[in-house]
Protein 1
Amino acid sequence: MSPRPTPPEVDRVAAAQAAVAARRARAAVKKSVADRSRTALDVAETAWAQPHTAEASLRVTELLTSIPTLGPTRVARLMQTLAISDRKRVGGLGTRQRVKLRDYLVTRAGGEPARLVVLAGPTAVGKGTVSAYIRENYPDVLLSVSATTRKPRAGEIDGVHYYFVSDEEFDRMIAADELLEWAIVHNSYRYGTPRPPIDAALGAGRRVLLEIDLQGARLVRRAMPEAILVFLLPPTWEELVRRLIGRGTEDAAEQSRRLETAKVELAAQDEFDVKVVNRDVSEAAREVVELMAVPVSP
Ligand SMILES: Nc1ncnc2c1ncn2[C@@H]1O[C@H](COP(=O)(O)OP(=O)(O)OP(=O)(O)O)[C@@H](O)[C@H]1O
Ligand SMILES: Nc1nc2c(ncn2[C@@H]2O[C@H](COP(=O)(O)O)[C@@H](O)[C@H]2O)c(=O)[nH]1
């Protein structure tokens, strides 16, 4: 028979048992926060996919208070942070509010919020210009450098603007599964996104921007559904043509080929999560960067 514990030992045993119980309780709360956040996310996704459902008519505040640990005070603070008014229903949220709410719920569910933004849009809308602005002014955002089989234009630097590779090297990259996506763009050259730098940057918690074409955007959506797809629009069609001709980097035949592709791309704009009009480069860049997740705490 083991000896009965003496009073100080009794205290130590009781304290150890209390600590274990507290740890279990904390783990249970954490699990239920994650589970309820996942459920809330499912409700929100249903509301956004099907606007005439009960889910869509739920108030955002009701959705959030379904998550344990979120009382009215924290919810009020969170609504301010997310820039959502108290009366808003889930189905009535604007695109940016949806992105922010989705990121918040994904994080609370224990997942990774969207840190990858794909910027696409018709030729000469200014994707490269906006991306270059982001590279210079938001150095913490990794701008992916694509591989391409096209030849460098004047001023383009290998490894900075593109990796200019031969057809054989591009074939090798595909065979080695080194590309997250690739496509033949404007029916001429191949372009692809090298996968290892993206994985490394996301793994390190960095924000990543891909500037790619419509086909590539669709492939990324399939591979990484959490990515945010942004479609850059020109103020008008005439301005798009002006920018293409004004850039002066393509001959007339290539310009008309690109404008044909542009019509197809513009017709697909509703597939994208967010549309940004490129009137002013710095403003468009700011709008794109703001879509990339930064932690939100209530
Ligand atoms: N907001 C803007 N206002 C006026 N001109 C702009 C604006 N943004 C870009 N441009 C100009 O439009 C032209 C095309 O821009 P850019 O080369 O960045 O387009 P792109 O979308 O990357 O084209 P592509 O898909 O063909 O590579 C450039 O001459 C650029 O200086
Ligand atoms: N699918 C991909 N498209 C890409 C990639 N990198 C660039 N692009 C797109 O190609 C066109 C043409 O570019 P340009 O530099 O020759 O004018 C443009 O629309 C880019 O967005 C890529 O890795 N994958």
Protein 2
Amino acid sequence: MDLFKVLGSGARFNKKRFTDDISLFEPSNKLRKTNDTSDTQMDIMQEINFFHNSKSAIDETLGVIKDKKITKDVEKDQEGEESINCYNDENEDEDDPAEEEPLVKDLNSMDDVKSFRKRHRIHIYGTDIPNPFSSFDDLGSKYNFQPYICKNLKNSAYEKPTPIQMQAIPIMIHGRDLMAMAPTGSGKTLAYIIPMLHDLKGPEKIGYRALIISPTRELAQQIYREFKKMAVGKKFKVCMLTKATAATQAQTPHLREKFDILISTPLRLVHAIQQDIIELKNVRHLILDEADKLLELGFLEQTDEIFAACSNVKLQKALFSATFPSSVETLANDFMKDPIRVVIGLKNAATETIKQKLLYVGQEEGKLIAVRQLIQEGFKPPVLIFVQSIERAKELFHELIYDGINVDVIHSERTKAQRDSIILNLKQGKIWVLIATELMARGMDFKGVNLVINYDFPQSVQSYIHRIGRTGRAGRSGEAVTYYTKDDAPYLKSVVNVMKESGCEVPDWMLQLKNPSRESKKRLQIIEASKKRKARKLAIASDKNEDINKGDTIYGDKKEKKDKSKGDNNSKYESKSLLSNKKTKQNNRKKKIN
Ligand SMILES: Nc1ncnc2c1ncn2[C@@H]1O[C@H](COP(=O)(O)OP(=O)(O)OP(=O)(O)O)[C@@H](O)[C@H]1O
């Protein structure tokens, strides 16, 4: 019996390369001489069971229990139709998307609306939820959007709205707070830009009225470009907050009032708020792009300070991301006012146009061999390779630079000019392989990326979903390969779950793996915490800006602030702080219980 066939179905396993591991996975000579009985197979499977499967899982893999029906994740529903059994709490029925769609004007009854949402896999939670719309033409005819917006949409050649746009835009123009979860590359940016432009109407010269926060400078720049594209024909002043723009506004205060829209990373903005360079009292729209990241520890304090500075009573808050861990949802629910939650497809799932694979590489060294083999065999550029740290990125770059391919590396120790030119070169096809840290994992829209390689195993499910989401964008197909070693075994199941949920083939033995234990998650947290410390040291040592903290460690850490300024500013906003809101609510709840 060829155990590689058993182990390798669905995953890739190179026998030639892992001659040493073969001895681990194959029966010894002695065993080979004996009959290939179930008992022998069981012994071998127990021996190589470094994922600690249950006995029944091994049985299934071997097919030992012949008459036991192997439980597949495909069940028959009452009508006898097959439906995939998902791990998410929001299973859904699939309709044929090719079915003719009713136009929004045809959505007369609740049934029409319901079936429209179902067809587009739009799940909604909340009260008084505005109906979705189905065609960009409706924006002009039904919602009275100004002609310049409709024209810019036409010029962008977007034929029809994506599901998140169909539902989020009406919610936003009704002024409601929103938590929007939709897959990577599904057009979330436009889903907030368009209604914001509509609501702002035109330039007013009273200072910032809309604010978009993004965890990285690169993503903020991308959002800025998208805004400029959609605002053509209106003289809105959009500011991307940088050291330079902050300095200009510090020197010429009257300039500040000319701006309408502000896009920034959290730390840059917090500094500007503390130095009284930026006023946010007129902000009516606050968007957190990659909201779950911005509400994670590390970023949370800064986000909190920004919320507190947005003192307009009519402030509308909207959170967008492809992932929302439940802890973040709970926190968000605490500070939003009667929010509507929109989920497109399955919660926390990967984009379905991405073909996901897991590749066993044996030990650490196997990763480089695997990449080299891919290069030798020929690949379709551009390819993004994700590694876990700046050091790893540099190392891999030095390995690949001599392999005759156009390779570059991006991380937060590279200068801003270098980073900008790398992104441009990748978009122009001048770079074939880009090695990247988490800096590039979220939000970046490189339409043509054909393959994402997770060279180092991602540190969280969210990281996995966002990393692989750099391919397969806007309905295109893409491929993602995740290398794994024995050391990654405790975390493998998290990725397997995502693969399964998004309809990728996964071998049965992988499905039987245990979910990561609390202990292993804790271990992971310790590793992450030490990385965080390391990054903070780096930031202090090189006196670099916020991007070091945010980009590469996943955790935007707050730079040490002078006690005085912190005290002054925090006390000013205390009553509206997210954190204090949460604490007050918790205290109130406790009081009620008592
Ligand atoms: N209605 C549309 N039709 C076709 N393409 C669209 C449409 N809306 C947006 N796009 C394109 O889809 C791509 C992905 O959009 P966007 O970057 O907003 O995705 P996203 O959902 O924010 O992804 P991520 O979660 O990775 O940040 C962009 O290139 C954008 O131009």
